[in-house]
Amino acid sequence: GAMGKVAVVGGSRGKAGAAVLAASAALQAGSGLVTIVVPEGVQPQAASFLPDLMTEGLPETSSGGFSRGALEPALELLEQMDAAALGPGLGTDPETVEFARELTRRSPVPLVLDADALNALAGDPEGARNEPGRPLVLTPHPGEFSRLCGTPVEELLPDRIRLARAFARSHGWWLVLKGFRTLVAEPAGRVCVCRRGNPGMATGGMGDVLTGVLLTQLGVLAARGWEDPAEVTERVSLGTYLHSAAGDLAATELGAESLTASALVEYLGDAYAELHGQAG
Q1: Which of 234, 230, 267 is nearest to 249 (CA)?
Q2: Is the pTM here over 0.90, yes or no?
Q3: Of 171, 169, 81, which is closest to residue 118 (Cα–Cα)?
C-alpha cells in the first residue's frame, strides 16, 4: 500500500477520455491502485479502455454529468483513498458544478484540481481551503488561471511568476501554472520553474496526463504519511518534471508534430529511468 490508492473523479457524456487519460497516467506513474469515478452512463465506456483500472459509476444528470445525488457516494469512496483528482472531462452542467464545489470543500483526502473543477472553483474560490493533511493542488492553463485570479490573460503572461506566487500565498494552495516553462508555486512563496517540455505538448489531453502524474505523487506522499508542506512541494515539482521530461523523450522518438497525450503516458517509465540515470 505504500504507492497509494487514488481516484480520478471526472468524465461526462462525450468526455470520458479525459478522465481515462488522467487515470492511465496515474497508473503508469506508479500508483498502487487507481479507480476512475464517472457518471453511471459513462461507466461501461470508461471500463472498456484499460483492464488495469477499476471503475465506479455514480448518479448522473440528464445531460450525462454528475448529479447532486453523486456527492455523498463520492465522499464515501474518497474515504477509502489516499488522494484524488477532480475535473478531467467533468462538464459544466449546473448540478455538476455544484457537485465539484462541494466535493472540493468536503474532500477527506488531498486533491488535484484541473479543467472544469477549476472553472467551478472560479465562481467561489473562498469555498475551498487547505486543511491539515489535505493539500489542494491546482493545475490551470493561462485561461483558467485568468478566471481564478481575475486578471486578463494578456496582463497575466508577462507577470505570471509574481501572480502565481501571490495567488498560492493568499489561498494556501499549490499552483501548477501550465505553459512554456511551467511554474510550481507553493504557499510559502517559493516558485519553481520547469525547464523541460516542448511545443508538441500544446495539444488536447496533456493537462489530463499531468493531473494523473501529480495525483500519483500526492497518493504516495499520503500513503507514507507526510508532515512537512515542503514534501508536497517536492512531490508536485517531481510530477511536473516527469511529465515534461516524458514529453521531451516522446517528441524525440515520435516528433513534436505527432505527439499525443496518450503517447506521452507510455514514456513516463523512460522519464523515471532518465531521472535515475538509467537511460540508454
Answers
A1: 267
A2: yes
A3: 171
